[in-house]
Amino acid sequence: MWNAAVASLALTLFPANDDGYKPLTVRFEHSLDAAFERAKREKIPVMVCVLMDDESANDMILFGHYRDKRLGELTKHVACVIANAKTHGEMDEGEGAAAHKVCNRFGSITCAEHLAVEMESRKRWLPGDLTVAPQHLFFDPTGKEILRQAYFVELDKLQKMIQVARYIVDSTSVDRAEVERELKLAQDQYQNALSKNEGVRKPAIQALAAYEDPRAFKLLADLARKKDDDLIRTEAFAAISQKGSYRALPILLEVLKDKKVLIRNHAVVALERLALPDAAASLLKLYKAEPSERVQGSILRALAKCAPKNPEVVALILKESANKNYLVRLDDAVALGFLTQNDPKLLDVLRKMAESDENSNFRGVACWALGMHADRASADLLKKIAASDKVAEVRTAATASQKALDSADARMDIDSGYQAFVTDEVAR
After folding, report:
1. Which neighbouring-strand residues pair with 245?
2. Could you report the per-residue pLDDT of 213-254, keeping only the tens digit for each?
3. Is residue 91 assigned to a domain?
4. Beta 46-50 vs 79-83: how paired, if at all?
5. Which of 144, 174, 204 is a domain's end point?
6. Is residue 205 part of a domain?
7. Which pLDDT score, from 0 to 100, does residue 18 have?
8. 96: left (phi over 0), alpha (psi -120 to 50) or beta
């Protein structure tokens, strides 16, 4: 439903036409069954769009991407459905005998229909309590998943995903020459990615991550599995670890079984960047068996990013706040800031850490974390630390967190503020 904040965002970023807000250019099928029936009939992919209401990334997709003319043209060749768990108002669509009521947020379908798609999508592809949104999933007409991306996706990337999905389903439906040209470029980049020259190798590995074609991504996956070269492997982990990248998930989960501490740690750090809830079970299992304290600390951070509300994750991170090992405990303090539950025990741990006499890195991270949680009960404590702590970086963190208590924008500004206190952050 349009509220004042959402309407303001839409008007600011996407100016209205003379007749009102820019209309949606993407039209949605009435059900998953209807989408797959059309996909089989027309030999096209299905795109499942998962959105939640009144959240900035989701609103940018709805009020921006789904009102783009070129995207609208491309989605005429895709059977699109929208999954959304909220009920909205109604508006009229069509004229005369064809007039009917539709959802005033998504158009073309009713609220009951996008609610049904959301429920069915949860059963089939979105298990667990935490569903990441926005999210785009592509399937062939038989229901086989071919592409998937969680969180905000740039418009040009979404357009490219649609074209690649169309090519996979029916290679005659798009310009094959352009697709094959890009694949040839990726193959050339792969050869450069094997170079001993860092200036040649690293840009090539990064470039491979930009291709949507699964055949091009397989080249990058091969580098990530290159067991005779740890340097190339870890650079490949960094390249594939783009937030929300489901295609990287199985590769990194596989690497968690590697015998080398260095390789396991880099894989865990990459999973932290993906921030996908699907990784939580494997990370929890690894934590119980992991002998390296360095990797243990990384796992705690990754868990907090992937499953910030998971009760088992929250309990583990709270427990490890008393860990005797410096590295584990410092990473655990960062993990406390990543969690999204304002558990009273969690906040109490952070306040005690912030006003302690121990290592300044712990105090600084604790101040940052209190700002991330917007804990107004800590306002006086943060003010005191900002005025009197003996370490300038800690005073700076406390000052920034004071501002974050009253402003969501300020909280976004301090998102990476913990890095000043984690000495090996560059190596991650």
Report:
1. 149
2. 999 999 999 999 999 999 999 999 999 999 999 999 999 999
3. yes
4. parallel
5. 174
6. no
7. 37
8. left
